[in-house]
Write a structure and sequence with these properties.
Strand content: 5-15%
Mean pLDDT: 95
Strand order of the largest sheet: 1-4-5-6-7-8-9
CATH topology of one domain: TIM Barrel
Largest sheet: 7 strands, parallel
Oligomer: single chain
Bound molecules: coproporphyrinogen III
């Protein structure tokens, strides 16, 4: 569960004030925070405590993550001169603390896999261009359409950074990787295919030789699922807007799915969360290619006890036998 730690009192206790980037740069702290949701919830995997903006921040681009707001960029990208601030990433030199955290976490976890991650080129580019979170992505889409050469160069640089970051995380101990294209659902399928898919395919394709499962995630991407799979994903993230049986009919039986409980149902309380979780399991119907997850990150106001009970419910009632249920049409 992404950002599962946000709702935990033990997270708030150790996190301290200041930028999350400072916490990420402190391996002892980042290791402890990565392990907290595993201890508390007994989930089947851990996700590295870092952020999609860590690589660009580490090459000195000039970005901060403001609590309650999200990534904020002082000088957003407007022209090709700004690309000079995006040099190639050298993970061992630029992100030693992330690799140290991944190594320590993997050693602590033993059999439980660590999921490494990076931001996909489109979603990271959207923050670098807009300067802060947006609901319309107008500047981003304007650059994509009006300055396609600059756009392509920007996405290519971000693809190289994401690929380098992910490869280094796998070498350090990550057993799977997730590429977060959280806001790709803002795009028309044709624009995704033309302006975004090539860069994401460079990242996912560049990981193929490592043999780790590649998860590709976005929000409101129901119409993009096929493209996101074709970009080179083994597992496609689905949010709550598309039932898993429909997602599976779009992608075919050979593709694993991740999702897709609505995070708001966890906030609503145990009754709503339990019936939502059972609905997800019913739609997956014992298919072995299913990673149960929320459709997006845990909301900060979630009750940890409700989340713990959701994990227990999935462990108790989830099936992966591949046998279609006869009882529940
Ligand atoms: O569970 C975990 O701790 C996993 C680590 C993780 C974080 N960010 C830490 C974080 C992961 C996997 C991310 C990914 C991330 N970051 C994404 C992709 C996933 C998604 O949610 O769609 C995106 C878009 C970001 C950018 C970002 N960082 C946003 C929009 C915010 C929210 C701002 C806010 O305060 O509400 C952040 C901050 C952030 N990153 C927090 C955490 C735990 C919460 C605030 C904090 O503790 O400072």
């Amino acid at each position: 569960m992404r950002q599962a730690g946000r709702s935990l009192p033990e997270y708030r206790k150790v996190r301290g004030g200041g930028s999350i980037l400072d916490a990420i740069r402190t391996p002892d702290l980042a290791t402890e925070i990565t392990l907290q949701p595993v201890r508390r919830y007994g989930v089947d995997a851990a996700i590295l405590y870092s952020d999609i903006m860590t690589p660009v921040a580490s090459v000195g681009f000039g970005v901060d993550i403001v609590p309650g707001v999200g990534p904020v960029v002082e000088n957003p990208i407007t022209s090709s001169a700004d690309l000079d601030r995006l040099r190639p990433l050298e993970p061992e030199a630029d992100l030693p603390y992330v690799l140290e955290t991944a190594t320590a976490v993997a050693a602590e976890l033993g059999e439980v896999p660590l999921i490494g991650f990076a931001g996909a080129p489109f979603t990271v580019a959207s923050y670098l261009i807009e300067g802060r979170p947006t609901r319309t992505w107008t500047r981003t889409k304007a650059m994509m359409h009006n300055e396609p050469a600059l756009w392509a160069e920007l996405l290519d640089r971000l693809a190289d950074q994401a690929l380098a970051a992910l490869r280094a995380q796998v070498v350090a101990g990550a057993a799977a990787v997730q590429l977060f294209d959280s806001w790709a659902g803002a795009l028309a399928p044709g624009d995704y295919e033309r302006f975004v898919l090539p860069a994401s395919a460079k990242v996912l394709g560049g990981l193929a030789d490592l043999g780790v499962p590649r998860i590709h995630f976005g929000v409101a991407t129901g119409e993009l699922l096929g493209h996101m799979h074709r970009a080179g994903a083994d597992v496609v993230g689905v949010d709550w807007r598309v039932p898993l049986d429909i997602a599976r009919s779009r992608l075919g039986p050979g593709v694993a799915l991740q999702g897709n409980l609505d995070p708001a149902l966890v906030v609503a309380g145990w009754e709503a969360a339990a019936s939502g979780a059972r609905e997800v399991l019913r739609h997956s119907d014992g298919h072995p290619g299913h990673v149960f997850n929320l459709g997006h990150g845990v909301l900060p106001e979630s009750d940890p006890d409700v989340l713990a009970r959701v994990v227990d419910l999935v462990h108790t009632e989830g099936r992966a036998d591949g046998q279609p249920s006869l009882l529940d049409p």
